[in-house]
Design brief:
Helix content of chain B: 25-40%
CATH superfamily of chain A: Amidase signature (AS) domain
Structural class of chain B: mainly alpha
CATH architecture of one domain in chain B: Orthogonal Bundle
Order of helices and strands of chain A: HHEHEHEHEHEEHHEHEHHHHEHHEEHH
Number of strands of chain B: 2
Number of helices of chain B: 3
Low-confidence stretches of chain A: 1-6
Mean pLDDT of chain B: 87
Helix content of chain A: 25-40%
CATH topology of chain A: Amidase signature (AS) enzymes
Number of helices of chain A: 17
Distance between the termini of chain A: 30 Å
Strand order of the largest sheet of chain A: 1-3-2-4-6-5-10-11-9-7-8
Shape of chain B: flat
Strand content of chain A: 5-15%
Oligomer: heterodimer
Strand content of chain B: under 5%
CATH architecture of chain A: Alpha-Beta Complex
CATH topology of one domain in chain B: Histone, subunit A
Radius of gyration of chain A: 21 Å
Largest interface: A-B, 76 and 60 residues
Largest sheet of chain A: 11 strands, mixed
Radius of gyration of chain B: 23 Å
Distance between the termini of chain B: 23 Å
Mean pLDDT of chain A: 96
Number of domains of chain A: 1
Largest sheet of chain B: 2 strands, antiparallel
Amino acid sequence: MSIPVSTDVTSMTVDQIQAALADGATAVDITQAYLDRIASADGELGAYLHVDPEAAVAVADAIDAAGTRGTGLNGVPVALKDVVVTEGVPTTSGSRILEGWRPPYDATVAARLKAAGTVLLGKTNMDEFAMGSSTENSAYRITRNPWDPDRIPGGSSGGSSAAVAAGLAPWAIGTDTGGSIRQPAALTGLVGHKPTYGSVSRYGLIAFSSSLDQAGPMARTVLDAALLHEAIGGHDALDSTSIDAPVPVLAECARRGAAGDLSGIRVGVVRELGGEGHTDGYEDGVLSRVAEATALLEGMGAEVRVVSCPAFDLALAAYYLIAPSEASSNLARFDGVRYGLRVGDDGSRDLDEVMALTREQGFGAEVKRRIILGTYALSSGYYEAYYGQAQKVRTLISRDFSAAFADVDVLVSPTTPTVAFPLGARTGDPLAMYAADLCTLPASLAGLPAISVPCGLSEGLPVGLQIMAPALADDRCYQVAAALEAAQDDARGHRFLDQLSRRAATPEGAA
Amino acid sequence: MSTPSRKDPLSRQDIAHLARLARLAVTDEELDLFAGQLEAVLDAVAHVGQADVEDVPPTTHAVPMTNVMRPDVARPSLPREVVLAGAPAAEDDRIRVPRILGEEA
């Protein structure tokens, strides 16, 4: 297909940036284009927590001097969610308790991207400790959705989603515990992939829920997401839960998928996620776009059938016990002793009091709620009824997936039940906020790969299709997503995100 | 905390006790707010009790693996000054901490 090639660097896909670099553009030029866009747009958008233009240009300059630009990812800018620890670069995880902290080491994800010659543009905003679905739980600022500045960009990786959708980064790293890559990608018209648990290193990600956390790519196209995934994936001895398997081949699968032949691929539509009898809370527009996308897959030769996964109905309940339980334990490290904030240390108070004051002042409301809930679920007398029971439900969810994958190759659903909701609409009601994760939680609990790919607009706002696959079959997500993307791009005549830049070109434009 | 069944509401006192266990010096306003919110969340998560889990083993981890070993080789630690630079208070090349024992102890 022919894509109108824009001369504006900040609307290019990464494969176009690579071509431009190979063709003589300098890494400094490319980086500067993004820095200029950040300088002009981020005051309103709120995508970044930290940007250091001089440092970015210095890295780009070194790549130009080394003569490596145009090969691999050398000279390609990237943004990292602020949960990713970066040596010497402020890292807060969206929390006041880490304000001003400059980590003494790099996360493996950051180290691999640095070694690949990418240029770090900055650290993106997020819900505090990745707890949230709207980025409104950030202790620092809200982030706006580039499609409508009065709406949320999703969360918790909402800084990354807004930055990429609005052209303030060509792509970004997000992390996903219960949907925090996929849901913001869906709400901003991006491709976002949660890799198989254990296939991308967690070393240096500030831990929220260790049995669920996973880093992954957020990008403008399926191919870009695959390229970024390949750059960060693979075994890491520093993460004891890392799977010792070769780096997956994904970009090739994306290219193959884009050819549009899905014959032989069996697609299961999950009834419990927006299907018959399970439509409460789902918007009609979202269900329509997902049905159309599924029909498109069928038109490319896929064999589509409805499958039932009854235990998915309990995924939300299980998740909101397991994740807060693990969080209450993980966040015990923020004790005001070794790093970050310390409050009330005036000589009159003992360690316990200082710790309690520090955590009181350093943590926001949602983090406190989850710590208290997790402490409750793990306390003696309640452990079996809550945490223990949730872990058994987790087993049931995995069994439903296994049974389904005996008959189909991938499962599909909406990524999230609604389009982006207005800022402030759910901040007073934690359960309403949690409902945004309804469709993404099952794959999280089972540790399976799942991608969100744009599948159209509803009320002028992006809708995402989620494609789930068995463990280590991430390639299937990319293949099917690429087929859908290519078919929709062909029908539309331009890329999904081009709809946003065209809209932004009008005076009513966002951000 | 007493040991009520799941049906008992989560009281303000319960929240205060849990907050103490978690080292959170919550305010009165927060206690009021959290008691209501957590009660609603607890109602929702209690749905896990509906599942028939007889003979179902718990999943602690999505990837079944145990005891990942590596060679016991000494590696350099982070430099002391780098670590101390990130600490909220340092003294004599060490992290300074508030006293550990209370007056009444």
